[in-house]
Amino acid sequence: MSSRNFCKLFFTSLLLSWIACRQANEASPVSSDHSDWVRLGPGGGGAVFIPTFSYFNPDQFFLRCDMSGAYLTQDGGISYHQFNFPNGASAFAFDPTDSNTIYAGSATLMRSIDSGRNWFQLFPDTSLVSGFTFLGDHANLKLRVSDTGIYHPDAGSIQCISIDPGRPATIYFAMGPWLYYSMNTGKTWKQHQLGSEIQVIYVAPPPRTDSANIFVFTADSLFILEPQSGKLISKSLPPAFVPAFSIAAGKDTVLGKTYFYALHQESKENPNDEFGSTQVIRSLDEGEHWEEIQYPRITNLSTGSRPSYSMVACAAFDARQAYLVCNRYQEKRPLAEPSFWYGVLKTMNGGADWDWVWRGGGGTGQYGVKDGVSPGNLNDAWVDKAFGGEYIRLMDVGVFPRDGNIAIITDWYRTMKTVDGGIHWNSIYSRAEKDSTFSTTGLDVTTSYGVHVDPFNQQHVAISYTDIGYHHSFNGGKTWLRSMKGIPSEWVNTCYWMVFDPAVPGKIWSAWSGMHDIPRGKMTRQPQWKANARGGVAVSVDSGKTWTPSSDGMGFDAPTTSIVMDPRTSSGSRTLYAAVFNKGVFKSTDDGKTWTLKNNGLGENTCAFELTFANDGTLYLTIPPTPQFSGGQPSREILPGAVYRSTDGAEHWTPLHVSDQLLFPTGMDVDPKNPKQLYLAAWSSISLGDLIGGKLARESGGDSTLGAQGGIFSSQDGGNSWHQIFEPLQYVYDVTVDPYHRSTLYCNGFNGAAYRSVDAGKTWKKLAGYNFHWGHRVIPDPADHSKIYLTTYGSSVWHGTPKTNP
Question: What residues form DSSP beta bridges with 500?
Fold first, then answer.
């Protein structure tokens, strides 16, 4: 069968099963198939957004991470259940009249009537879905819908879901500039095009004075909808406050007054500037008039510098209580440099006055402040010890609708909750254990590259992470500890890989980079990226408790993404190879003390990403595509990815021709019993904008799709010839040969699934219970050969038995 027909059949069956799943009122939650996956790690570690509370229970709320996972708790954050919607969730809503009904938006509108146990697709109707595609560096899913008059596939994801508390069958949501509403629980839909992106849909609760009670905000206008007649009234916001962003609305149900809050960045600045000067505005008469809040602590005019605010939120039925997220707050100091703060301010009286409820910083820098202090009212887990005193961007805020004293704040690493109006904030992302280690609550939002088991102590397990560096466990993964002592501050962001010395207990080499998310194209779009990159190799002789940089000859500016050891060399004088993303391949013959560049035979693209060592000594190298930057300037030209082989210890490299359509090789593995048997993973088609940036692509001739074969290729002759064994439209991050089960292969990638083959790639089956959208690697567990680890781009590490779907 040709690969083209095989691919067509594969995606047809995938589509049919995907649609059938939703027609059967199921969305394949992780626990639905009795698989035993457990997520490992310290918890937290990444940005979390849109905290959304139930109207009935402050212990029930939804969160989403910035890397597609959605998390629901029923016990106030003690534990979470993870859901994975297409492209990640973009909005949540709880029904204000039914405690069991929940809505989630993504590429589709999903509904659950049993508190999230099962989901069905409400919009678009599944009968209208004729197909779907994955496309781009993040393999975003896009539906093909037969009626584009009702579903606008280019409008973006579903946002701003709101359920009418006075009309329980009435649902509102937005897609870009389109306002949708249904008055019969989604059986039929009406729509309005409002001209610009919708930011908020607010449905005023009963009692009401009239029927026009649906308030829809864009950046420059307020629209009032009367759903029965479909009449839409438009009111322009005052020009001085346009564009408005982060609009919040609610009602004081005791006094019967409606409050609108919003933010406005001064017009001379970028409204998306993290440190722009911000005005806080409000309306007390349902949008007829707007005013700037002039409270001195908010304006801070005595310093001559307005603060920067990024988010405002209020309680829907207790709207006198509102929270304001601050990114930059400057304070003058006599005879000294100004100090800079960040955090959260709160009002309890509708914005008349404000007080700090979260105040961190106080250092002499802004974004990079490292001489500040942590807020004193945080009962935190591991993040405060790891990053406290630095500037930590606060990301989002959510407030319990019926009590403004209950709120959630999220930041770059953690999720914190208050039940006393901000007097105290408690960690709900990680638990501190008595031995000073930490365990996850199930809110795992980190990117992991590898799981590494100590050959001398299988209870000692390490994870190499993006953004939070190196964590390890000495009890088989039950609890974790961050261990970064000795790693230069410029390197600490990401540990990409590590290798244990098989003959010396406690000895580890590790690969570090200040650049995260390699090899994603977004990391190399600026011409100066190579000059700004930092990283290198570090060594530990005490099982990862402390580290020493070991990069002599490599430089301090060597973002290292892969390191391998030749196990045939002698202990104490090991030969090691390192892939350095901005320079190429380095070799050490003295246990990693000194390094020499070994690029003979490599082309112009020296962004070395992954090294693979075969047991006959042959080395293989994968290099992803990057912008060319001719003359040091941005351009449309790119350097395609490449695959190389060396048979003489990296002294010479030979390019391997895999396919005319191979653009983005990602990873490789070798059969340990047959070093000529190779498997290569690859990314499918991406856009030019993925590599050079969408703005440059559009302004220099338009964006375009760079067609490429993804999936997996196989070679039985050491790379001289190749054939495809897995779907060319798949975005496969890496492929793994199981050393404990003959002919067994695994792969993981960005199509919401991981796969296993037990016949060396002839046939593949999806792993049951795993559906995280963005996957990295599969790593067989050396301590339990019946289990595997799955590393992910945003959901930490999954560990369990690899059962397959029928």
Answer: 508
Residue 141 lies in a domain: yes
| Among candidate residues 432, 463, 479, the one where a domain is terminated | 432
What's the rounded Cα separation, in Å, for the pair 243 and 540? 53
pLDDT recorded at residue 3: 35
**For the sheet containing 448-454, what is the strand order?**
448-454, 457-465, 470-473, 481-482
Could you tell me the CA-to-CA distances from 357 to 77, 325, 424, 781 in Å, in that order?
A: 21, 10, 8, 45
pLDDT of residue 207: 74
> Can you tell me which residue has the tokens 């002839």?
762
Both 423 and 454 in a single domain?
no
Q: Which residue has the tokens 């990693």?
A: 592
**pTM for the full model?**
0.93
d(Cα 563, Cα 613) in Å, to the nearest integer?
A: 10
pLDDT of residue 32: 38
Which residues have C-beta within 8 Å of that of residue 672, sequence separation ≥ 6?
615, 737, 739
Total domains, the chain: 2
Q: Dig out the tokens for 617 from the structure.
A: 């000594």
CA distance readout (Å), 281 to 78, 240, 263, 264, 285:
36, 11, 6, 8, 13
Note down the domain range covering 532. Answer: 446-597
Whether 650 is in a domain gets the answer no
**Prior bond to 519 cis, omega within 30?**
yes
pLDDT for residue 14: 38
Does residue 380 sit in the same domain as residue 525?
A: no
Segments of the chain with pLDDT less than 50: 1-33
CA 217, 219, 223: angle at the middle one, nearest 5? Answer: 30
- For 127, list phi and psi in degrees, rounded to 5: -70, -20
By the 8 A CB rule, do 259 and 322 touch?
A: yes
Rounded to whole angstroms, the Cα distance separating 160 from 189 reads 16
Give pLDDT, residue 269. Answer: 53
Quote the radius of gyration of the chain (alpha carbons, Å): 27
Rounded to whole angstroms, what are the CA distances from 116 to 63, 112, 580? 13, 5, 44
**ω before 124 within 30° of 0 (cis)?**
yes
Going by the DSSP 8-state scheme, the letter that residue 490 receives in this structure is T
59 and 141 share one domain: yes
DSSP for 9-49 reads HHHHHHHHHHHHHHHTT----GGGG----EEESSSB-S-EE
